[in-house]
Amino acid sequence: MNESNLRKIWFITRPERDPSFHEEALKALFKSTNNFTIKWAGNRQAHKDYEQALIDIGIKRNSISDSGSGGRTWASLLKTFSYCYTDTNGFLIPTKVSNEILNGNNIFENIKKQILTLQIPNSYFLEKGFKPKYDSNFAILPVRFLIKLCINSQLSYHLTKEEITFIVMTAQRETDLENIVSKVQSFRNMSTEDKNDYKTMVSSEYEHRERSDKGSRDFYAAHSDVAHTFMLIAEYTGLVQYDRGINAKISVPLYNLSSVISDLEYYDTRYPFNNRYLFSLERMAEVNGLDINSYKASRYGDIKPATNSYKKLKKAEKLLNQYPNPSTLSNDKIIEILSSSSFSIAESKKISEYIKSNTIMETLDENFVNGVLNEPNNLEFEKKIGRILEQLGFDVLMHPKVDGERTEIDILLKYNDNLCGIIDAKNYKEKFTLSSSLASHMISEYISNYINYDNYDLKFFGYVTCSDIGGISNISKISAKSSNNEILGIMINAKTLLSLLDYCISNDIPPQNRVELFLKLIDNSSYTSFTQILDKI
After folding, report:
1. 460-479 tens-digit pLDDT
2. pTM for this structure?
3. How confident is the model at residue 209 (pLDDT cuts 50, 70, 90)?
4. Known InterPro entries for this protein (predicted)?
5. pLDDT confidence bin for 168, thresholds 50/70/90
6. Which residues contact 411 (CB under 8 A, 6 or more apart)?
7. What is the pLDDT of residues 70-127, one digit of tens each?
8. Cβ(430)–Cβ(468) under 8 Å?
């Protein structure tokens, strides 16, 4: 996409700005889709039915669009806040928080949580149908970012709608906070003429619209309504006040400052930025759509940033992020990894004890995820895939040797005391196609050599790819020619394998049960999305 057409400023779908009506919007969708059992994608009648349900419940004016566009816009609002998402089969899937709200449980707190965990990008903004796309540099929780600016004494604990429109909404990352503070301070000290020049510059640099009305609708008219919506939803959380009028602003009263700071710290600890969009929009939506009683946290628990303990843990993390979930490593393994670097044995033991004793929920390490998906070295890619499979409960052997043979499979997986599988890891950045020659190699070199490795009977073979998959029909051919279909195969990309592990970690599935889930997928099929997996496990 042309860089000039990318979104460089915040946006939010807003058929209804007031979050008080999220509950009714969900109830109407529940009713019109018969408890989410009616296919949504491409179904204009379903979209119109949703519009009618919104009218019936009293939150939409009495008018139904010919194409059902009104229904799609309202559904987009719900997807923006991770109340639901569209699966690969075209159905809307409600998340846990939706089910809680529909059941009447903790409605305000759950809606507040969805507002404060709203992020750019999210699963809806990354859907194919959402255009224009955001600049890839975006990684921000906009409502929290707004409120953090409002607790800053340098800004006198407030922001105006004009400042939000022309300055704050250009922020792309949490690290932009101090820069935005500086820009707002400078803007407040400008003359009227200088302010107009600044606004003209922002309008030119950040406008992405290519509409026929672009000339008549200036930047402020187009984007101040988005700012107004963010101010409204921030107000709903109870953390800021919204003073409407010509000089509209949001502010944090001094008497409430310590409480707001405490709330933000709580959310930053419990709900960090979710980067699961790197491997699965479905998993991202599921996690962002957790209700307030479903715990999600970083491994640092109550340790606050900037303390020595925190800094040492962050340093240790850089060494441990070569593993999917460091908290599952043994004490001895963690000590071995850390002490081989600059940590003393005593420090390594202390950090290991903390990681092992911490009772917070385990999470998939985001640095590891980035490492897997962007690994340039083929050997390192193989090692990382091996570590994922180890976390899925297999006993992993890397490049196991067979006497008298020069060819080695990348990964051998032992399980159930006497069974095994073999995996060929393919670090093709664009697409891996299983050709006839590679299929022949799997039959003649790998399956025949590992048919009974170390008294473990071979039961499956597979390919884990970095990106897209082709040549799928050759899986069944390998199975038929090598074993008369007794040894089955699988093709799966790294994103989907990570999605499976993330699902297992989030649902506290023990290692022995994780193996069984993986084995359910082995039926000469290929997998490139989490939804395909979920259909079988």
Report:
1. 999 999 999 999 999 999 99
2. 0.80
3. low
4. Restrct_endonuc-II-like
5. very high
6. 382, 385, 386, 389, 396, 397, 398, 422, 423, 424, 425
7. 999 999 999 999 999 998 889 999 999 999 999 999 999 999 999 999 999 988 888 8
8. yes
Quick check: helix, strand or coil at residue 246?
coil
Distance CA 88, CA 503 (A): 17
CB 506 within 8 Å of CB 325: no
- Residues linked to residue 173 through DSSP beta bridges, in sequence order: 139
Residues in the chain: 537
- Please give the share of the chain, as a percent, with pLDDT higher than 90: 65
Parse the chain into domains and list their residue ranges.
Answer: 1-107+281-304, 140-272, 308-361, 373-535
Q: Which helix (H) or strand (E) holds 94?
A: strand 92-94
274-536-434 Cα angle (round to 5): 85
Instruction: Return d(Cα 537, Cα 532) in angstroms, integer.
Output: 9
Q: pLDDT tens for residues 275-311?
A: 888 888 899 999 999 999 986 544 444 444 445 666 6
- Tokens 């989490």 belong to which residue? 530
Q: Residue 106 corresponds to which tokens in the numbers above?
A: 């903790």
Domain 373-535 fold is: Trna Endonuclease; Chain: A, domain 1 (3.40.1350)
Neighbour tally for 233: CB within 10 Å: 26
Is 94:134 a contact under the CB 8 Å cutoff? no
Q: Give the three-state DSSP class for 80.
A: helix
**Buried b or exposed e, range 457-469, using 16+ CB within 10 angstroms:** ebbbbbbbbbbeb
DSSP-derived secondary structure letter, 446: I
Task: Write down the H helix ranges in 237-365.
Answer: 257-270, 281-288, 308-320, 331-339, 345-357
Residue with tokens 């170390």: 454
- Coil, strand or helix at 141: coil
- Determine how many CB atoms are found less than 10 A away from the CB of residue 4: 10
Q: pLDDT per residue over 401-431, tens digit each? A: 998 777 899 999 999 999 999 999 999 988 9
| Main-chain phi, psi angles of 424, to 5 degrees | -105, 115
